[in-house]
Write a structure and sequence with these properties.
single chain, 427 residues, mainly beta, five-stranded antiparallel sheet, 1 helix, 50% strand
Length: 427
């Protein structure tokens, strides 16, 4: 049985940060960086992010969508979890169904990554790697998109996509979009914003390029978008002895109209933090003084936000809820998440969770619309038994990740009072 939620990688970004930059004027970029749209009806200014890479899938904070391996066949089963009660059920309306194999209404012909993208009108867009007739010997790994309603009924059947998507997904409520990056030998990237049609009358599943950029070597998209475009960070690296240090230079907005606007400029050893989930925001941390500042994305101006211990180094994993920032640092080689409230004292989150026998801090995985957090509570280990292809009875140990829902304030206190979501093992 597979794990539902992958581990959050705590890879240290060796950043020594100082202060935030000032307002800069919009600058036009070279023609080869300009966005090119082949979809006139695409309204990119209304795009909202549906998920981040490896994210949980939920829309309004009431229902979580997830998948598990089908117990008695290949493929997967689509399940829902009520985020107010923690109860889990298969997304299947067949009377008397046992939810075991491909006869279940929740079954998907899926063998790898899947994205469940809830739309505001109640439809579910499913994007996943495929088994079966779409997979040709020696061909590029295939993917499919299909459309279902909230009962699990298929509205548009699985339709092949030209390549397998990865990373974040976006929507304008008419279509869904994702970024496709193709790296060149010189380190630059050809980045396409791919649009997937959802209207059956216009060719459900048809993929087209809504925007295209040729980004220079050291300009990296963050996957967070605003009405104007995609947030990005321009960076460079330098050597300190035998250590390569990544150093941010500019926080930028790669705009839909093909220009790149510098939001804030770094000096000396400065860098920026764009939270992975929750509110779209940008921060600047000074490692030498422990000062965290918040940036205005329109003007680039900064205001003090919080002060932390000196010498911390930012690492991956962050969430923003109103005036609360939760982010992860490395101190003396150890990962430490902190709860920061504007103008308040920082609180180190000391709750530890176990993953494959290793302890690590309880991590925030997503932010719900009502401001609650989905938190990784560690692994639930248990025995499972099954009959293999030879008819032999097999017993083995496996695990799945426990998830909890809590308010930011409950998380600050160690998430002891959080709502624990029902696991597939219990289900």
């Amino acid at each position: 049985m597979e794990k539902r939620i992958g581990s959050i990688l705590l890879a240290v970004c060796l950043l020594l940060l100082a202060s935030c930059g000032a307002k800069r004027e919009t600058v036009a970029v070279e023609p080869d960086i300009a966005a090119q749209s082949s979809v006139p009806e695409a309204d990119l200014t209304s795009l909202r992010q549906l998920s981040q890479e490896g994210a949980l899938w939920q829309l309004d904070g009431t229902t979580l969508y997830t998948t598990v391996a089908a117990p008695q066949s290949r493929g997967k089963l689509l399940q829902t979890v009520d985020l107010n009660t923690g109860k889990r059920q298969a997304l299947c309306s067949k009377p008397g169904c046992t939810h075991q194999d491909e006869s279940c209404g929740a079954w998907l012909d899926c063998e790898s990554e899947i994205a469940v993208l809830p739309m505001e009108d109640g439809r579910l867009v499913l994007v996943y790697g495929r088994y079966g007739p779409l997979e040709k010997q020696g061909a590029e790994l295939s993917a499919a998109v299909e459309l279902r309603d909230t009962s699990g009924a298929v509205l548009c059947p699985a339709t092949p996509l030209p390549h397998r998507p990865s990373g974040a997904f976006y929507t304008d409520e008419i279509a869904v979009y994702y970024l496709r990056e193709q790296w060149q030998e010189d380190g630059s990237a050809d980045v396409s914003l791919i649009r997937i049609e959802l209207d059956a009358a216009k060719g459900f599943g048809q993929a087209s390029t809504a925007a295209f950029w040729q980004l220079p070597v050291m300009l990296s998209l963050t996957e967070r978008c605003t009405e104007q475009g995609m947030l990005a960070i321009r960076w460079e690296h330098r050597m300190e002895g035998q250590t390569q240090v990544v150093q941010h230079r500019e926080l930028c907005l790669v705009q839909w109209d093909g220009t790149v606007r510098t939001v804030a400029e770094a000096k000396d050893e400065q860098a920026f933090l764009v939270p992975d989930t929750g509110a779209i925001a940008a921060f600047c941390f000074d490692s030498a003084t422990g000062t965290m500042a918040r940036l205005d994305l329109a003007t680039g101006e900064s205001e003090p936000f919080a002060r932390l211990p000196e010498g911390l180094q930012l690492t991956e994993g962050s969430a923003c809820v109103g005036n609360v920032l939760i982010c992860n640092f490395i101190q003396d080689g150890e990962a430490k998440p902190f709860y920061l409230e504007k103008g308040g004292e920082p609180v180190e989150i000391r709750r530890q969770t176990s993953h494959n026998g290793y302890l690590r801090p309880a991590m925030v995985l997503d932010v719900l619309e009502d401001g609650r957090l989905i938190v990784d509570l560690g692994d639930l280990e248990y025995e499972e038994s099954y009959t293999d292809q030879t008819g032999q009875w097999i017993t083995s140990r496996t695990s799945e990740t426990l998830l909890g829902v809590c308010t930011p304030e409950q998380y600050r206190e160690g998430a002891a009072d959080c709502l624990t979501l029902e696991t597939n093992h219990k289900f």
